[in-house]
C-alpha cells in the first residue's frame, strides 16, 4: 500500500512540476528560434557505420496480437531462445547472450536490473509504435548492456484530427483468444490515446514426446497464458517551442510454465507485472533542443512450484537530460546525463538492495561534405563499487557513388562496450559474487550498401556487413570446486560473422510488391577460459546458430493484402563442448487480409497461418513448440 501512495505522490510531482517549468519557458518573443535540421531516422543520426533496421509498420499492424518475440523472430534473422509456448523468450545479437542486449522504451532502459535482460514474450506489440534494431556494440549511445546490440521501442505517434478508434478481435487454434481496443483524440496542439489488450492462450496442442520410446504423440498440458495490459500517451504542444509528453505502459502476464519433455510436472507458475511511467519535456531555444525525461518503473516477478515460492520486486527511477545543438546541415552535437536508482526486494537476497548509477555522454555528428557522414560518441559511466571505462564509438558512411539510378556507400564502425554485473550476480544469498568485474568488449564492422532506383516503380536496397567482436570477462554461472553454482568472469569470447540483407519494392499499377531477404553467419567461440580445463576453447557457444536466414514478402492489390514469412534456423549446440545439438528447422507463416470500406470507417478481415508446413522444432532442448495453427481476426478502424 505504501508503494502506491508513493506512486501517487511521484505522479503529482511529475504532472505538477514539469508543466510549471514548461510554462515558464513559453516566452519566445525575445529571440528567433533556430531551425533544427533532421539528419535522418532518429536511431541512425548518431550511428554512422552501424547496421540499423526498422520493422515495417504494416507488418506490426497485422501481427499486433502477438508478442515482440514473435514479430522479431518472423521478420529478422535474430535468434530467440524460447522455453516452449508459455516460457520466456530472450534475444541475442551477433553471438552474444540475452543480458548483453539493451532494450529501451522511449530512450530509457527497461531490462530488469536483477536479471539484466528482457523477456520478449511478455512485451506485447499492442500499444507499441516504432521498433528499431541496432546491431553491434552501442554502449556509447545507450549505456550498460549494449554489447551485442540494442532493441529500440517507441510509443506510437498520433496525428489524428478529432476522435479515432480501433477495435480488434481474434481467435485461433489451441485455445487462443485476443482482443484489443484503442481510443484517441487529436487536435493541432494536443493528442491523447488510450489502448488496452487482453490475451488468452491455452496452448493445448499435440506434439511428439522425444523423451519417450517411439516418440508418441501427446497433448501439451500446463502451458496456459493469460495476459492483459494498457498504454496511454499524451502529447501537449504547450507553446510553439515547448512540448510535454506523458506515457504509461502496464503489462500483466500469468502463465503456467510447461515442463520439459520427460520431466515431472511441478506445477510451475510465473507472474510478471510491470508498470512504466514517463514524463518527457522537449523545448526549443537558440541553444538547440532540450530534452528531459523522468521515469518510474516497477517490475514484479513471482515464481511458484510445488516446493518454491520466490518473489522479486524492483523499483527503478530514471532521469535523463540532454541538449542537442544542430548547426545547419553540417554538424550536430548532443550531450547529456543519465541517472538511475534501483531498489530491489528479492527473496533470494539477504536484505533489500539499492544501487545508483550515472553516466555522462556526448554524441557528435559531422558531415564535412555531402557524401561523407562521421560520428564520434563518448560515454563515461559511474557505478557504485565499479570503475567502468570510458566507452567510445567512431563511425562513418561514405557515399562514393551517387548517380540517377545507383547509390553505393561504404560504412564502418569501431565501438567499445561494457556491462555491469546484475544484482542477482552480486547479491544472491550464498552464491552471489561481489568481486565480479564488468564485461568489456570491442566491436569492429565494415559494410557496403547499394541502392538501385528505377523511376517511381522499383527500388532495390542491398547491404553486406562483416564484423568482429571480442568480449572479455564474460560472466557465466558455473559450479566451483565444491559444486556450488556461482557467477564468475569465466572466459573471453570471440564473435565474427557476416550479415546480408536485400529489400525490393515494386509498383505495377494497383499491385504493390515488397520483399526482404536476410542471412547471417555467426561464429561465436571461447577464445580463452580463465577457470576450469579450457577443453571448450575454440568451440561454438551453445544455442548460437551459425546460419540464420529469413525471406519475407508482401503483396497488396487494391483491397487485398498477402504477407509471407519464411524463417530458417541452423543447427545449434546445446553444450559448449559441441557434444549435443538441436536440428535445423524452417518455419513458414502466411497472412491474407481483405479491407472493406464502411463509409469513412474500415473493416479489416485477416486469416493467418503460423508454421504452415507443420514443422516439428525446438528453440530450447525438449521444449515443445506449437504445430500448424490458424487465427482469424476482425479489426474495425475509425475515423
Q: What characteristics describe this protein?
A:
639 residues; 22-stranded antiparallel β-barrel; 5-stranded mixed beta sheet; 5 helices; disordered N terminus; 7% helix; 33 strands; mainly beta
Write the layout of secondary structure elements.
Blueprint: H1 2-24, E1 51-54, H2 57-62, H3 68-75, E2 79-82, E3 89-92, E4 101-105, E5 108-109, E6 130-135, H4 139-142, E7 149-154, E8 162-172, E9 176-186, E10 190-201, E11 206-208, E12 217-219, E13 225-239, E14 242-256, E15 269-285, E16 288-304, E17 309-327, E18 331-346, E19 353-369, E20 372-383, E21 391-402, E22 406-419, H5 423-427, E23 439-454, E24 458-479, E25 485-508, E26 511-529, E27 547-557, E28 560-569, E29 572-573, E30 581-582, E31 585-598, E32 601-610, E33 629-638
Parallel strand pairs: 4-7
Antiparallel strand pairs: 1-6, 2-3, 4-5, 6-7, 8-9, 8-33, 9-10, 10-13, 11-12, 13-14, 14-15, 15-16, 16-17, 17-18, 18-19, 19-20, 20-21, 21-22, 22-23, 23-24, 24-25, 25-26, 26-27, 27-28, 28-31, 29-30, 31-32, 32-33
Describe the protein's architecture and organization.
This protein has 639 residues and is mainly β. Helix content is 7%, strand content 57%. The strands form five sheets. It has a 22-stranded antiparallel barrel. The longest helix is centred in the first third of the chain and has 23 residues, at 2-24. It is globular, with a radius of gyration of 25 Å.
